[in-house]
Amino acid sequence: MLNQGGYNEQKQFVSQHLVGRGRVVDAQLLEVSPSLRNDLISSLTPELTLLPQGDILLALLLGDKQLISKERWQALRQTGTGHLVAISGLHLSVVAAWIYTCLLFGLSRFVPHQSRRNITLALVAAGIGAAFYAYLAGFGVSTQRALVMILLLMLLSLLKRFSTAWERLLFALFMVLLLDPLACLSAGFWLSFCALGIILYTLEIQPREFSSISTRRMRISTGLMQFWAIQWRLSLGLGLLQAALFGGVSLHSLWMNILAVPWFSFVAIPLAMAGFMCWWLGTAFGLSWLGLLHLSDWSLSPYAWLLDISPQLPAHWLTLSDSTLAFILSAFIGGVLWRYVPKNKYYLPWLSMLSLLFIPIILFCMTLYSPVHTNRWAMHLLDVGQGLAVVIEKNGRGFVYDTGAAFGDDFSYAERVILPFLKAKGIQAVDYIVISHGDNDHAGGAAILIDAYPAALLITDIAGFNGQNCRPRHIQWQGLSVSLLSPQQVQAGNNGSCVVRINDDWQSLLLTGDIEKQTEAALLKSEYTLQSEVLVAPHHGSKTSSTEAFINAVAPKLVLFPAGFANRYGFPKPIVVERYQQRDIMNLTTGTEGQISVIFQQSEREIKTYRGDLAPFWYNALFRFGDFINPE
After folding, report:
1. Burial (0-12, 13-18, 19+ Cβ within 10 Å), 564
2. What are the pLDDT digits (tens) for 282-293?
3. Of 109, 145, 275, 381, which residue has the fewest beta carbons closer than 10 angstroms?
4. Are 398 and 422 in contact (CB under 8 A)?
5. pTM reported for the whole predicted model
6. Percentage helix, strand, coil, to 5, in the chain?
């Protein structure tokens, strides 16, 4: 599925080098040979399941997030502290620093030596400890980056060679991309390298000159000021990056990170690692030493309390539309450049050009107080697999026709596609929800959408829903004429689909649901106008629909097929597509194009597809390999 605002699963699969998915139909277990990490996960998971914060502990120790619930993940995102749970540079640095400090202290105290032997031993042990912890974490992108930088720092220290932190960061970037060029497709890659870049920049403009500070109090004060400078820059920079990657930003990440980062660095992570080593050592003697793990679980209680109260905090998660995010990023870039361009008469032309970057955000703020109404409206045919979901957008308000399918208790296209799309487009209110008929691929997400927009007026003939029926009538919405054309009476099955025609003074759109030949013939005999520039093909392009007489009556310039890629029905049928092509009617299919958007601007019509226009990147291409099977 490829839609604006939605999760790009294909991009994630490509970044993980997954080229296909399958399922085991029949098998017999012959041998079990787990890796050390998997063996540790299997042994430790039952123990941690019994602890209140066992989900966070398992993620901290072994990088396994299987115990983290959906609600906990939501809280981690809302607080902007998810990086504390995902093993990254902070965790490796803390482990390496504690190993180095404790070992060097012990060696210097009990076996002192005038040479660099103790330092060398401490550095080697810290490097081995960091590498082993990175292995336990699964060698994620952020872990790779941190490990390369730590090992390089230790190696250069042993060789007495100087290198700047920026050089080590660039070398880590080179190594990560050399080992896995597709790593740049993951969000963790950008978050990790940008975070460290912000930290290094802060340390560069605010150097720690402790040698010139005489008192301990002044040193502590300087360190706290530097910590504050790093945290607010991280919150701002990564907040914008998070908004670009995930469509929202946490407004409480700054103060929560100020509290949580030192606690994790000096208490939670050291206790967790010590508890893990004690437990692992105990298993070698057939014992279960969980004392320190219980203590580390207790140390995470304050952090868990923060996660629990985060949903009750005001503005705990601010969703940003694509346009709003573009305005903010434009102003942010302008502000950063303005900071560094000299303010004198020789740079006035540059300063004048930079001022243009602030115009979008100014215009956006003006529209908040004085909304602009235009004749422009858009129809978005969303990619919901083998199903149908259409969003009509005008003046920031929405009209939804069908909701796609739902499978089981935890999957709904309304939740995965429609709601994120509405947020990404900045559609704050949905005025109408039309459910054409009761098939799952059209009505599966109705309940979720109705719960999300309780003020929306529901139009459907499906029993059990509290709304208006689909009897023929005209509705005025945002200056558009919405005509309900069929059915004349409640009718079960595909032919009972609500048929809706939407038009302005220049162009029109026909939404047909799953009607078949019988309803098409009835519409041809009716007094209603069917002619429309854009047609969403009846019944996904089935042979039971799209008769030649119906196509001639509608006379569309563009026909859209809401059909999933490689669906088991073979929609749209080649013979149906050929009927439209014989009349020189342009045709597009969601399964191959992703989301299809048609923008109506008076007599002009602009067509945009996700793969071709909205995100025409190589990793969004339709990769045709392997056997075509039903992807659902």
Report:
1. buried
2. 888 877 788 889
3. 109
4. yes
5. 0.85
6. 55, 15, 35
